[in-house]
């Protein structure tokens, strides 16, 4: 069977994302075939397309998150039946496609009440937020935490979940509309970092005490500022590099306030399928109970993946992006 998919033949600008017909393999032992209904677009996809990451063998189909329906099962695949709704994240790429064949262990069953669009746009972001808040630095009631890109996909989930755990959340945002969004999604304070020095503002808000944890996905532009915002024994959870890679630095910088630093990968943190499924259930429960509210979702046809990438790279956007085959 040949069906349309986005194929990246060489790294570069968004126009490198082109629609082609590709073979969809019959499911082998332990595999299932799924038809995608919604495909998440993540910042990771931009790193891959632009050539910052060389983790997808070219030519290749990008995409690390999707939802869909099982259409066929291979020998020995017993977890799912045709018609089951599923979602998944994967380091193997291949999500920007109409259909695919995949190891059944990768899949997470979707409960009623969680739409395909919600799952395809919030599974990766939600698992990331869960791992950061519960495993990398376990947020406690009355903690003060700093979240950069607080109106972004992962950022808004971090803010809401940290606030639900009783933390005081300070978010940084790139504009007034984002500040308003962040304040409605878990932040007690929203810092307009283009207008004010976020380190000075955090210092002021925390009366010089600093934050117990800083969740930093921006990287190059914020790393040292985030470090400066930490309280004694505070933790810096760097988990992305939207502004570029963090340059090499002296580890002894952590010594002054006995700080710690992590650089989490959700794929490594949640590498065991059982653990990932369990965390996904917690995530779906948090959405079902209204602890987490999804932000706006902007939809593009699969063929318009280049437009979606332009939207992703434009810092004007809020919420999440998805492709519909
Ligand atoms: N480690 C992991 O396992 C893992 C998993 C998932 C995601 N991530 C990372 O989490 C981050 C957020 O992902 P997301 O998909 O939810 O994206 P997002 O936060 O919705 O978008 C990125 C935001 O970062 C801010 N930003 C600051 N400097 C920027 C720059 N130079 N260029 C572009 N944006 C900049 C912008 O918000 P403002 O306008 O408010 O500044 C922008 O909207 C990404 O860095 C991603 O790689 C990591």
TrEMBL record:
Cross-referenced Pfam families: ADH_N, ADH_zinc_N
Coiled-coil stretches noted in the UniProt entry, renumbered to this chain: none
Alphabetic keyword roster: NADP, Oxidoreductase
Residues of the Enoyl reductase (ER) domain: 12-323
InterPro entries (UniProt xref): ADH-like_C, ADH-like_N, ER, QOR-like
Protein name: Quinone oxidoreductase family protein
